[in-house]
Design brief:
The chain is of the alpha/beta class. The protein is about 40% helix and about 15% strand. It has one domain: TIM Barrel, CATH 3.20.20. The protein is globular and about 55 Å long. The N and C termini lie close together (about 10 Å).
Length: about 325
């Protein structure tokens, strides 16, 4: 059965020295310190993450896809590359560089890869401009962070971007990053274990309560990591909406639960009971295989959890490729 992995990250093997180009630091560069490995380093010398060549090598990536039976990967940059903190024009330049790299891979292997771009969200006009360019170079959507310099996605300044995604028919993937409270919980990897799920819930609630999703009814938006803590706390969120409409319903009078079945989630939940719950909550047609490849916090054997579940074949087909195709607005025939 066709597997489409909607949540995979990729980097160019060589990244320009943006600090030298722009005159200030904070950017990521790669330090190739031994064969098939590199350190992701901030240009102030601070270590961020060790990666292997499957993060940049298309050949290695294809080998691993063959190993696990993945037919198609949806490519997006590593969220630390978003660069929302940088000067807008500089972020636009780094975004173009990353997007062109993904577009080249998709053009070379159109049956194996689909591309999502990144855009300078700190400047909505520039973000829309790069969104339009992404479409022209063959990318089918974009990936954005759960906040923009700690501004919620539902802020009015971002609305034109979401409207442009809807009007251009571009898929939107929302990935946690720059986690709230990160400085206060550095120990035990808590930003990734606790902060990321909360960040995704924050983004979903902001887009719902602000009325953004209500005003962009045809926006095809998917949230990473099974929607984070949103599915598990929808009861509390709905209850708050009902008992305190003065606080929660000031900009949108629609019940948050009503958006289940209208938004997509990836299936990266690491737990059979949670996957069953998510499928029952959102519908199999809104839950798509996503692994966070090639990072260790992702699903190390793509599709194994879905395939282990007692779902019928029709449901498994939706989870392994059907929901992804609908979200991306693509046909299965494009990859077979």
């Amino acid at each position: 059965m066709l597997k489409i992995d909607i949540h995979t990250h990729i980097l160019p093997k060589e990244i320009p020295d943006w600090k030298e180009r722009f005159g200030y630091g904070g950017f990521i560069k790669l330090e190739h310190h031994k064969p098939c490995c590199a350190r992701m380093m901030r240009d102030d010398g601070k270590f961020f993450r060790e990666i292997e060549d499957n993060c940049w090598s298309v050949e290695r990536r294809l080998e691993e896809c063959e190993k696990f039976g993945v037919g198609v990967q949806v490519l997006s940059t590593v969220p630390v590359m978003f660069g929302y903190w940088a000067e807008p024009d500089d972020c636009a330049e780094t975004s173009k560089f990353l997007n062109d790299g993904i577009a080249e891979i998709v053009e070379k292997f159109p049956r194996r890869f689909v591309g999502l771009g990144t855009v300078p969200m700190q400047d909505t006009k520039l973000a829309v401009k790069e969104l339009e360019r992404c479409r022209k170079i063959g990318l089918v959507g974009v990936q954005i962070g759960t906040n923009v310099n700690q501004l919620n996605l539902g802020e009015p300044r971002f609305f034109d971007f979401f409207k442009a995604c809807e009007e251009l028919g571009m898929a939107l993937f929302v990935h946690p990053w720059d986690m709230m409270g990160e400085r206060e919980m550095q120990k035990y990897w808590l930003p990734w274990l606790v902060g990321m799920p909360a960040e995704t819930c924050r983004a979903i609630c902001s887009l719902i309560f602000s009325g953004t999703l209500e005003r962009c009814k045809n926006l095809r938006v998917c949230f990473a990591h099974g929607g984070g803590s949103f599915p598990a706390t929808i009861g509390r969120i709905e209850h708050g909406f009902l008992v305190r409409p003065d606080l929660c319903a000031s900009d949108n009078q629609c019940n948050p639960r009503d958006y289940l079945g209208k938004i997509w989630f990836d299936a990266l939940v690491h737990d059979a009971a949670m996957l069953e719950y998510l499928v029952n909550l959102a519908g199999a047609e809104k839950v798509a295989l996503g692994t966070d490849y090639p990072f260790p916090l992702g699903e190390l054997e793509p599709g194994a959890l879905i395939e282990s579940m007692p779902f019928d074949e029709k449901t498994k087909a939706k989870l392994l490729h059907g929901a992804a195709l609908d979200w991306l607005n693509l046909d299965k025939e494009s990859f077979t």
